[in-house]
Amino acid sequence: MPCSPREISTLFLFEKLTPEQLGRLCAEGRVERFEPGPVYTEGDPATCFYVMLEGTVVLYRRVGGDDIEVSRTSQRGVYAGAMQAYLGDRVPQVYTNSMRVTEPTRFFVLPAQSFSDIMREWFPMAAHLLEGLFFGSKNAQRAIGQRERLLALGSLSAGLTHELNNPAAAAVRATATLRERVAKMRHKLAVIAQGPYSREALADLIEIQERTAERVGKATVLSPLEAADREDELTDWLDDHGIPEGWRLAPTFVQAGLDVDWLEQVAASVADDILPGAIGWLNYTVETELLMDEIDDSTTRVSHLVDAAKQYSQLDRAPYRVVDVHELLDSTLLMLSGKIGQRIQVVKDYDRTVPDVPAYPAELNQVWTNLVDNAVFAMNSTGGEGTLTVRTAREGDRLLVEFRDTGPGIPPDVRGRIFDPFFTTKPVGQGTGLGLDISWRIVVNKHHGSLQVESTPGDTRFQVLLPLTAPETAPEPDTAEEPV
After folding, report:
1. pTM attached to this predicted model
2. Does the pLDDT of residue 475 top 60, yes or no?
3. Closest CA relative to residue 339, chosen from 370, 307, 362
4. Per DSSP, what are the bridge partners of residue 450?
């Protein structure tokens, strides 16, 4: 269609241009009419810059298998397309979104190369400023993103140190006590060896010791009331049989799962004159078994924490592989347990029937970390109590991972901006504004999934949807391109 310098001069982009400049635009560009349907497609080479003369345009992005509308307007003069052509080959020159029209629509269309040449010739200072803004923003975003990861790492390291300290300290205490008990056991053994015990009596003692050790390993946990009642029964039995300090021995025997019936079996197996020595000998046996159990529990806990740290960091795993998302969630929740604290209840509502998914596990852990951190911050802002519910489910051909908190909710006036880079509702110094932006890029750009939020006071849900099957090729690294 013919291009009229007079018509395009009425567009706000071109209203300050001279007649010669308008003439050049019409000479190098064209006016084109599109019927309802697509104009260009996301990912295709960006060959043209479009300015709407009349009609209605819709911009959208492909997220997973869905087309997500990001803008719809009938405002004359709006523009889209090869908007970064002036940056040349320093950035990928592809369309960062798709555009279609919903009614017959006319555009002024300028080839990308012409747009680039005109920007540099007519507005050299503006072109330099825009270049600086574009690359400066990307560099700042990259630097702050690295800072965000370091802050998360510092928080996780502090939490892991706290979690490791408890079982490690317990193991140290138990080891010191065990050394003391073993020394007393050696002394007791020497006393028994020098006493008036026959070979048969010693054999009986050793046999009772073995059966007692087995009993300790099978002890059941009693309620406080049940334990108190059994302690009273054992104390009375020990006192009735002339065992000194029965009140001190009874709690240890109860913890080991011993009862009056067991002591009756011991009394029936040995002579009355050696019963006090036998009970003392069994007490040392029980104490050493309980202490070894405590050391075993503590070291197992340390090992479990180290495994969780490896699972979280994925240091020894392939960067892209099929993973059980529940393992990733569990490792993240464990690593963040110190930060979550005791006043926030964590509920795991997992659908264990969902299949494994192809993913970058270390980066998904970063997403879980950001979402959990935000949920905890929200609940801490209203008293530090609440419930964090992590739910998984299958939704068609995608896996849903939902993080739900009982915090104050996200105000409607900022809900549309929470995924914008550098936007944060946290106080200065407590947030970079990149946590949700990074999460969005990891989920959407790298995994072809979607990340959305629903929020009312007392019920905020961040929902991550991941494809159950891998794309034909592994996702490419995030190019940080945003829809116009």
Report:
1. 0.47
2. no
3. 370
4. 465
